[in-house]
Input
Amino acid sequence: MRLDESTNRNSNYVPQRQVEFFSSGEQSREKRKPGVEVGGGLSVGGLSLRRLLTMAAVSPADSTDPVDVALRNSLRFLFRHGAPETGVSREDFDPAKDRRYSLARVHGFQRTKDSPAEKTVIIRGDLESVMNVAKPSHQDRILLRKNAQMAGSRGYRCLAVASATVGDNGELGAFRMEGFVNVRPVGTGLQDEDLTPTSDDWVRLQLWSAGLRFLHWLNVVLIVLLSVTGYYIMDPFFGDTFFRGIETGFLMGWMRFIHFSCGFIWIAVGLARAFIAFFSKDRYMRWETFWPIHSKEDMKNLGRTLGFYTFLRKEGPLYVAHNPLQQLTYTSIYIVGALQMLIGLSLYALYHMSNPVWAFIALPCSWFGIPIMRLLHVMIMFLFWWFVIAHIYLAFRADSLERHGGVSAMISGGVWMRRTSRPVDAPEL
Ligand code: HEM
Output
């Protein structure tokens, strides 16, 4: 048997790593016959996907194994002008009996259109077992496992492929990891045809009101503006500075003006949030949620969540709104934010000491001293930066692990929950 390009007239592709679909396209979704479907793959050894599939399809010519049949069909679909012959004789094939991969000997395999046809031994089977033989690089191992995991979530099993060339003296060279091809059963009734969750499997909950979302994004803008202008007040990091003896214009004045304006808007945002906490009928936004620990079970759930966040547990308890750890963090940040507002107000009051109300607000500056108040104000700014970094990371992490759309929920207001799930804070879902 010769696996060469003679039958393939349309092969000016560049071998590279990629994923594409090998669907035969013969059957519509509705009337699929029971069998096996081939759905893309990953090449790490430099082979084009068509050649990877050719390798994977090498099997005894008379094989009726559904996987072999499906691979050959896909090959026919990919090579419209004539697929390469992939059948080998029974002597050239050693099926997977005691090991989790089979071996096949082919007498002429071309890695690319122009490369020589070589005697090659091909192994195909379970990914881990084939990787144990072919010993791919650490990087490729991770790439293969990750992609296999992703294919697995769509119901595919990976048929891994590795190859070794046989030298002129008959000596077998080292195995090279080539990649894998995805296969999955269809129409068997044993497994769902398409395991990708559909919208029927999920429930959408409208969680965050438009008002709360508006306040959230206003917070983002204000904290950025307050940080930039505040940092500038502390250390004028751009523009001309007085210290270089250059006329500075009114830049610092503008910075302070923006800082104070944003500061007062931020205080208004804080008051609005407090109003929502006490007057909203939505239980996820009320002040009661600020302290999430009411029972021993809540305490345990806090521990479990902590374990999940520190990679000690595979799963944490499921919450529709905030888990106890998130809630405690947000409550703390509210407290620290309120403190920042009070310190800012107290510093601002220093400009209006003739007014008894401002003089009263400025009292902390005389108790602790202005330098301490300014230091605290700056330290809280840095604390905020840490919070923002962790908050963004954890929000994206939770969204990608739990697939609930938590990040977009701060825009759209809604999260997604699996219909079968039983969140701690919404048992009636
Ligand atoms: C996220 C919130 C805030 C951040 C990150 C922030 C940051 C800063 C920073 C870094 C400074 C410079 C400190 C120094 O070296 O003296 C500063 C000064 C100041 N901030 Fe804020 N601030 C915030 C909120 C507020 C609020 C709500 C007010 C109240 C109106 C306020 C009023 C002031 C005042 C009066 C000063 C002193 C300005 C001066 O010395 O000329 N800040 N802020």
